[in-house]
Amino acid sequence: MPERDLAPHPTHRLSTRRTTVLAVAGLALALVAACAGPPPGQQPVLSVEPGDTEGVIAARGLTPDDVYAAVKTYTPTGQKDDYVLFASGGHSGQVLVIGVPSMRLLKVIAVFTPEPWQGWGYSDETRAVLAGGDVHGKSIPWADTHHPALSETGGEYDGQFLFINDKAQARVAVIDLRDFETKQILNNPISTSDHGGTFVTPDSEWVIEGGQYAAPLGTRWASLDEYEAEYRGMVTFWKFDREAGRIDPDRSFALELPPYWQDLCDAGKLVSEGWIFCNSFNTEMATGGIEDGRPPFEAGASQRDMDYLHIIDLVKATELAAAGRTTEIEGFPVIGLDTAVEEGVLHFLPEPKSPHGVDVTPDGGQLVISGKLDPHVTVFGFEKIRTAIEEGNFSGTDGYGVPIIDFDAALVKQVEVGLGPLHTQFDNQGYAYTSLFLDSAVARWSLGNGPTPWSLVQKIPVHYNVGHIVAAEGDTVSPDGGYLVALNKWSIDRFLTVGPLHPQNFQLLDISGTGESMRLLYDMPIGLGEPHYVQMIEAAKLHPWEIYPEIGWDPGLQAKREGAPENGDERIERRGDTVEVWMTTIRSHFTPERVEVKKGDHVIWHITNIDTAKDATHGFALPGYNYNLSLEPGETTTLEFEADTSGVFSYYCSEFCSALHLEMTGYFLVEG
Amino acid sequence: MPERDLAPHPTHRLSTRRTTVLAVAGLALALVAACAGPPPGQQPVLSVEPGDTEGVIAARGLTPDDVYAAVKTYTPTGQKDDYVLFASGGHSGQVLVIGVPSMRLLKVIAVFTPEPWQGWGYSDETRAVLAGGDVHGKSIPWADTHHPALSETGGEYDGQFLFINDKAQARVAVIDLRDFETKQILNNPISTSDHGGTFVTPDSEWVIEGGQYAAPLGTRWASLDEYEAEYRGMVTFWKFDREAGRIDPDRSFALELPPYWQDLCDAGKLVSEGWIFCNSFNTEMATGGIEDGRPPFEAGASQRDMDYLHIIDLVKATELAAAGRTTEIEGFPVIGLDTAVEEGVLHFLPEPKSPHGVDVTPDGGQLVISGKLDPHVTVFGFEKIRTAIEEGNFSGTDGYGVPIIDFDAALVKQVEVGLGPLHTQFDNQGYAYTSLFLDSAVARWSLGNGPTPWSLVQKIPVHYNVGHIVAAEGDTVSPDGGYLVALNKWSIDRFLTVGPLHPQNFQLLDISGTGESMRLLYDMPIGLGEPHYVQMIEAAKLHPWEIYPEIGWDPGLQAKREGAPENGDERIERRGDTVEVWMTTIRSHFTPERVEVKKGDHVIWHITNIDTAKDATHGFALPGYNYNLSLEPGETTTLEFEADTSGVFSYYCSEFCSALHLEMTGYFLVEG
């Protein structure tokens, strides 16, 4: 207990009440309010009659711009959003699903972190998926999700799958967008962190996972004194089997990279399909040590003017991997750096230092990079790069022998956009948009084939410290334009204070017009994680299930499970010390309602939700035994556990299903 | 893998694109759209110029009512909401914080379930708080949170604390609203489930936790054949120590109740202060057994026309507890049922069967109850109840000897409101509001001292299957009116489909007017839990910290921690096999940046965030070692663990803090 109360709770009992105002509220007052407007900082929202739109506008002090934004984003009951954002949840380890333009959170998809509402990590099947992400045999039930990638067909989002990485532990997850559930988690066997993932090739054949902080591959120990010799970067190419809905680790491989810190990657498209681009920082190979008087990483990794854009020929790399030109590290095939250099798989291109992101234009022809300490965006031409490689137009090699393409040979243009440029998106009008961290702004600028070639068009403030941005279908070969979302890392004064941990702020911008017409539409607080990146897909491209296709559905198999209990199959069987239960759930009862075992029994418990109505989900909470399931209509599951605690436990439906939902329960009796 | 693909992903590559429309978009088209309106189901939102409010209204097909709702709820950047909702997250185990009228999710407060963005359950201190909720020595890292209760002073919310229960495991948590963090979790030692909690007395001296499914007290086993003799209900009175900010279990006690299933409780206020009311169902004492041809609980627990409202004299009960008139069960003092009857602590009052909730009117004078299979609300008078008790006006006793007050002696009025009435709230105009589950509606009706005494005024549809409702400050002695939120359990067709698990739907209603003026304002999808109940407090009453008051702050103590590292204290010390680290974090580096240990070492690692800027939170991710911290400005923490895995692990800041955030990292090297 505190010895002194430094910051006591306030002792005043009540703030000023509005009851007096309310008592005399009426049309007359509303009209006065409408004419006078509210005093600054006060919003007498209750002082106008219901339905009096003009009165509310006046009373709440809304400007014409506010009213425009209100009608542009407000989505009446039953009307659907036009776009869907899939946002990483940062170190929440989850994915957020958000509707645009309403900016309403439609769902949190549990991925790396257990989430009991969905039963994620509280059933045996989902625990097995999570166990795929075990690190050195340890369960690590959190992640730092960074970059979601929607599956693509022909460079367009196809609405089928979503991939996402865990920066902290170098893991990758696969989500099926039929049921919005995670199906697979893989732990990168050779790396301890990643950042340049996930990104997909235009037909989702490969899911890219680039590294972050260099370490000995295979996660063994080596002294920092041996950094240049023993530490390495990497990029991993995970082979995606679309029919199975899974990454196939047996057909995947990695590429060893120098111990620079790889940052973000993007896949080529159209003319550049088959190439992968990753930027990097800390080509200084700083190893920190502020405590011993060495420069801290923030300085040590920022000394050189240029870092290296990594240019990877994926076609050649896959040929090498297929030909067995790999070394096994932790049983995983890795193309060695020497082989990559020898075979021309890897080239470098100087890029302004410490950039965050490389973004391929929709036509695949150009790469946009922003050194975050340089006020310009730098645009390289893919054909220029390829020509330089073919002609051997190199300015030298790095310390690991990787050829460095001549900067001027690859450069198309540099455009000054503002301070702290980070990440670039594209629309359908020839504009590009770059987030400016230090300016807390988004810059609209014209590409070479845009309305006003290579010029800054408009900068719009955002609040505050914007990281990534996303435009509608902005990573595809045909962006839609219309909307852009700024992922602001700090919100500071934008929302009511909810303690020292402030929400992030997603701001929706209207980019539907031309020229200097960008407008701020909406502030969405994000108080359940810190999203890094997000993709925005046209809602019409998603075709999720409203219920599972058949009774007895196994979401792991995405098929009906043999032997799943159905109506009439319910029973309890004892075989020695094993008790097996076949249960069904339907509004509003479980069958059976009594399950009686002895302490020490092994229990196998199958449950199917045989309801078929949309939204007729049943929960199954088994208190004290750490099971909490969400059984959507048709879904089946099997629990298997030891009855190690005696007592009386009421299992019950934890998802409100009917007027008699509270009565939907049963007794699990463990004698002994 | 599935043998057949029963429900394949759609094979069409792309939906119709809007690029053609966009190419010709302009004012002309906008005007056409504004006149014609869009075809049903289509919203060509991109076909008007930015800033053209009328054009957007027409293009999006908004009605005048929609525009009213839009301007009533839209909250421009930097403007703050007027009210704050604290909603249970249902079986997510968390609490949701939502602004009104914008209906934006400001924060998820982690309570029973680990949540890594907040570092909740990923630091040693927060793991210790969670361990307070261990059940039979088992960690149960989820909960079914039901009923949040804001602390009160004089029957008004005071904005200091929030309490919430876990129905599944009979646990109670305390949240401090200075930093919006959970400070305490307690496991009820005598019960396995709760439902009638949490509710507070008007000065928050007691936090009430009523039971749910009957079981032997103390959680021992007993056969269902001995249900009437061995199974029991309960209500627990947790003593809250406001100064300490904790429940004091040593000054708490429980009351044994018959094995009916207690449902919801409410505390008396003003004239009824000192009394506690809990309703109940399954006074039939059904034990289920559909599998053996017995009636399922849904029928067995619904046979009698009346259940029992439990009327508890808390003043007498506390006197008995203080006098030691208790029995110890699992070391916890329990007033036995016989003692309660003998001393007049407990009385019953018949209530229409299977009600959900008992709600005390703001003046404390009446109790509103809705049998959910009866279209009426039933209003009892507190003075009538007290008189009946004093005069012994009983219709008999139940099987356990509890006196049953004569129904007619206590009845004030019954008002027909509609099908499936559940829960009632109050405003400042003399209206009451009752949710109607089967009607999917909210009824406004007039109390006896309201505008049109004892009459139904308006029913407004909600979507769908409404459970609880909440009005602004609706549980206090002086509700504000203005807004009401309906917690709809099903959303079905209201939002884009996000898989078979649909969101819930919070609908905001405008109740500021009189008569039939209620309006629907906003649909908020809840896609991260199923809230049961919520309370709505005036935002001005909350005074949370924006940063911690001092550098080195321990949120567990809510005081500065002795010995927490500050600027200049950074060091690493080895004592035998123990390595102790004093670290600070500030934009944008850790000090130290290298921590080198040997496998098997015991590591003690103190970290303080010495940043003092608002929102300058630093994360601390230690990959592979399952730590992920959120260190808000000033916060300190200590980790203690065995270095059991060798390798190179990059710790890093997981909360984007500056332009050089990615460089904020260090190496944890475990040799061996």
Number of helices of chain A: 11
Radius of gyration of chain A: 28 Å
Categorize the overall geometry of chain A. Answer: globular
Rounded mean pLDDT score of chain A: 93
Extract low-pLDDT stretches of chain A: 1-7, 11-46
If classified by CATH, what would the architecture of the largest domain in chain A be? Answer: 7 Propeller
Highest CATH level, the class of the largest domain in chain A? Mainly Beta
Helix content of chain A: 10-25%
Number of E strands of chain A: 44
CATH superfamily of the largest domain in chain A: YVTN repeat-like/Quinoprotein amine dehydrogenase
Total domain count of chain A: 3
Termini separation of chain A: 41 Å
Strand content of chain A: 35-45%
CATH topology of the largest domain in chain A, what is it called? Methylamine Dehydrogenase, Chain H
Biggest interface, chains and residue tallies: A-B, 236 and 237 residues
Structural class of chain A: mainly beta
Could you please describe the fold and organization of this structure?
Two copies of one chain form a homodimer. Chain A is mainly beta and 672 residues long. Chain A folds into three domains: 23-62, no CATH class; 83-541, Methylamine Dehydrogenase, Chain H; 553-671, Immunoglobulin-like, CATH 2.60.40. In chain A, 11% of the residues lie in helices and 40% in strands. Chain A is built from eleven helices and 44 strands. In chain A, the strands form twelve sheets. A six-stranded mixed sheet of chain A has the order 8-9-10-11-16-15. In chain A, strands 35, 36, 37, 39 and 42 form a five-stranded mixed sheet that branches. Chain A is globular and about 75 Å long. The two termini of chain A are 41 Å apart. Chains A and B meet through helix 3, helix 4, strand 3, strand 5 and strand 31 of A and helix 3, helix 4, strand 3, strand 5 and strand 31 of B.
